[in-house]
Amino acid sequence: MSEHRDEPANAIAPHERIDAAEAISLLQELVRIRSPFFEEDEMANAVYDWLDERGLEPEYHAVSEPEITGFEGRNVVARIEGTDPDAPTLMLNGHMDTVQLVDGWDEDPLSGRIEDGKCYGQGACDMKGGLVSLLVAFEALADLQLRGDVVLTAVVGEEGPYGLGTYQLLCDGLTDDVDGAIVAEPGPTIAQQELENPALILGSRGGVRYEITVIGDAAHAAHPERGTNAVVDAARIATAFDEMQCATHPVLGSGSVCPLEIRGGDDPLSVPDRCSLAVNRHVVPGETEAVVLEQASALVSELDLDSSVEIELRDVPSEDARFGPYVTNEEHGLVRALADSSERLTGAEPAVGYFSSIGDFNHLGHTAKIPTIMIGPDGDNVHRSGEYVYTDEVGAVARIVADAAAAWLK
Ligand SMILES: [Zn+2]
């Protein structure tokens, strides 16, 4: 009940509780920790310790996928309990891992060097900057005695296959009571279209991968007409995919298809009788697994090949671990709260955009059906050398998130 709240603590507005200098020093500390996907232990310890030192009661959450990847890791989770069990619950989600360190850096890829308002390092923008925004926003929310809960999830394995860290949150019920999620991926850099920050990314396409096996008939290479060449038929399938038209969605744009890998035939004097083909397929709502499998079968039958063709989707830890598309309603209360806070704190109405590829947000937005919004500090060169994040945006996003969360959960 509001009359029993600690008035002096609440008298400070949520965004005024953000210490930008503290955020930047945490950013540098985290950028200096090497944490490519599946090697996040040191990073998880640092995030845990930071929360623990502030009395925010973090817990490790075990992530395990023994069948395909053999990965065992730990998310870090913390919860601020609200005063009203009927009030909404907000999830703040950020990944602790980065891509593997890429070649081409002309300095230490983990320098955390700051120059001209940019902090450099692999993962600085994707997404240690955003993770720091969420951590300091979470700290700012801790004393506010809000009605709703805030669940902070610092996850592993986002850049690896299947987004295992966030997927484990779903498997273990940590998303069950969540009514809205903020994922602090860098907005403009990953958006389909040019945007200015602050930007709210309200949806994303999904993605699947076809694994296609083409089986022909071997013969001596001197007489190719006597066999059925699986490599040639796989090439015909790849070309047909390349020319395929995909469905279009009003805001997510069109689905897309990209042949990725073709492999077969290694005998110097034989018509190859086996070839495999991998094809990436980005999908929009309505393009379910059944639909895309049916499309591929139709495309292959149309070609009337002599080879036989098996079409499957890539093996996943579980059927619902696929990345499905989603769109969050612009009128949802959390979207409105973020838009209002952005406008109030920056003077500009935030841009709204959509992302074209896949990530943890698909698990939250599609599978868990949580209204999911990405907002994060921007930068450039993500997944490349020279990656940086704008330092002033780390604090700016934290202020917006803290302010909007407090308004939505008050
Ligand atoms: Zn990311």
TrEMBL record:
Keywords: Hydrolase, Metal-binding, Zinc. Its cofactor is Zn(2+). Residues 203-303 form the Peptidase M20 dimerisation domain. InterPro entries: ArgE/DapE_CS, Bact_exopeptidase_dim_dom, Peptidase_M20, Peptidase_M20_dimer, Peptidase_M20A. Belongs to the peptidase M20A family. PROSITE patterns: ARGE_DAPE_CPG2_1, ARGE_DAPE_CPG2_2. It comes from the Archaea. It comes from Natronococcus pandeyae. GO terms for molecular function: hydrolase activity; metal ion binding. This is Deacylase.
